[in-house]
Amino acid sequence: MRLTDRCYAVTGLGYASPWCVNAGFIAGDEITLVVDTGGNTLAAQTIHGYACAARAGNMLRVINTEKHFDHIGGNGYFREKGIDVYGHGGIARTPEEFQAEIAEFNDSIPDLVRRARNESRAFFYRTNLVNPNCRIQHETTFDLGGMKVEILLTPGHTATNLSIWVPDDGVLYAGDCLIREYLPNLDAGSEPDWRLWLKSLDRIEELKPQLVVGGHGPVSRCDEIPAAIDSVRRVLKESIERGSSPTARSCEVRSAGYQSS
Ligand SMILES: [Zn+2]
């Protein structure tokens, strides 16, 4: 989806129900910055194809908005092509965590025959765990040629969450810091993280973005943005007051500890 002359969203990539995942890219005069790589190599191929077609001849660079596998699953595809993948310095996923994610994904397949066939293997076809090779420790700016984008630290959902702000176009790639239609996922952290998340939302509000691409669900425009911020803020405040996330009970039921989204 073309959002502005230079900003694009790739929405609706697959993941475990009910989640679909978003990615996007920003095409400068020299560099196209890909935001997130989807959950698997098949998604990465789609993102890569669109990003190359938008401005042929540009160098590609990737940035991950966080550590969860639905945002970094396609990293390996880009790294195999020699493309640098940037991400928060705290992203250091282990092969054991990735195997647990695949097992959890397989366990969630409703059809018993498909579950027994381990059809998660089809979803994760040629998908390898690859962490970012370029670390972001502080807020920084990328010059993409003729335009600059700001890399902001927006922790809360996880400690590794980044947002990408394109000031000239009023576009923010917020990752899972700001999503709508879905309940935000608070289960990767606890109360101190949720308080940080509120601060990240304040920061986003001050930017006054015109378009927000969240990590999941529809792109938000204009009036939808304050409503989305208010909605996530309300969930966070209620959770802080209650001392538990809205989905805490379903998390206790699940045995696996590695959660995506
Ligand atoms: Zn996510």
Helix proportion of residues, in percent? 25-40%
Total helices: the number is 9
- Topology, number of strands: 12
Low-confidence stretches: none
Separation of the first and last Cα atoms:
21 Å
Characterize the biggest β-sheet. Answer: 6 strands, mixed
Side-by-side strand order of the widest sheet: 1-2-3-4-5-6
Q: What string gives the helices and strands in order?
A: EEEHEHHEHHHEEEEEHEEHH
Outline the structure in words.
- This protein is globular.
- The strands form 2 sheets. It has a 6-stranded mixed sheet. The chain has a 6-stranded mixed sheet with strand order 7-8-9-10-11-12, covered by helices on one side.
- The model has no long low-confidence stretch (mean pLDDT 95).
- The two termini are 21 Å apart.
- The protein is 34% helix and 23% strand.
- Helix 1 (41-54) links the parallel strand 3 and strand 4.
- By secondary structure, it is α/β, with parallel strands linked by helices.
- Helix 7 runs antiparallel to helix 8 (224-242).
- The chain has helices at 41-54, 69-72, 75-80, 95-107, 112-116, 120-123, 191-207, 224-242, 248-253, and strands at 7-14, 20-27, 31-35, 59-63, 85-88, 134-136, 140-143, 148-153, 162-166, 171-175, 211-214, 220-221.
- Bound molecules: zinc ion.
- Zinc ion is lined by residues 68, 70-71, 176, 215-216, 261.
